[in-house]
Amino acid sequence: MDIIETRPGGRSRVRFKTVPARRTSAAMGDLVSNWDGALEERRLPPLLAVGECPGVSVNMIRHVQKGLWREGGVECLGCGRSAHWRQRPAKMGEKG
Predict the structure, then answer these.
(1) Whole-number Å distance between alpha carbons of 34 and 38
(2) Is the whole-model pTM more than 0.70?
């Protein structure tokens, strides 16, 4: 049974798509493969890629964000809950 999110305006979307137990391993393999491919091909910035995945927790977004911050890929433009983040521009000679 899929888990459907219904928004206040009446629009709905599938938040979690269930798979039969026998397909769980393959589905997880597909998920990891698609995630790795999106990051390698730079189709989306990592934070957007995480946000586009239904059911991704706030903790996972924070984990990815903190990793990007440690690597110097993003910078924080404030403090607290209302702080904004932005991607740092690539420096000369850097890939990106």
Answers:
(1) 6
(2) no
